[in-house]
Amino acid sequence: MAERIHHIKYIEGLLLSLNTLAPNIEDAVKRINSAMDKLIKGHLLSQNIIHDEESILNEERKDALPIDIVIKLLETIKSTTK
Predict the structure, then answer these.
(1) Are the CB atoms for 14 and 28 separated by under 8 Å?
(2) Local confidence pLDDT in tens for the 82 residues of the chain
């Protein structure tokens, strides 16, 4: 747990220093976005979680409900609240 807290504080410090060292807000945003992309990619690689666009779309589809079920649920909710 202490290692994770240290890691979070370390990342926070890096992001703050990137922001402080940037000459303007646009550059700061670009630097922070780039750093965040690298951190996320590194985390996913260390966890062996690599996703491509197709696997992300498939994951999103798993949680989707057919529209007819959604309509029935809304009708049921509407009729019970009257």
Answers:
(1) no
(2) 788 788 888 888 888 887 787 788 888 888 888 888 888 888 777 776 666 778 778 877 887 888 888 899 889 988 887 6
Decide: pTM greater than 0.85: no
User: What b-and-e string marks burial along 51-77, b requiring 16 or more CB atoms within 10 Å of the CB?
Assistant: eeeeeeeeeeeeeeeeeeeeeeeeeee
C-alpha pair distances (Å), 36 with each of 25, 49, 58, 60: 16, 17, 25, 23
3 state DSSP class of 57: helix
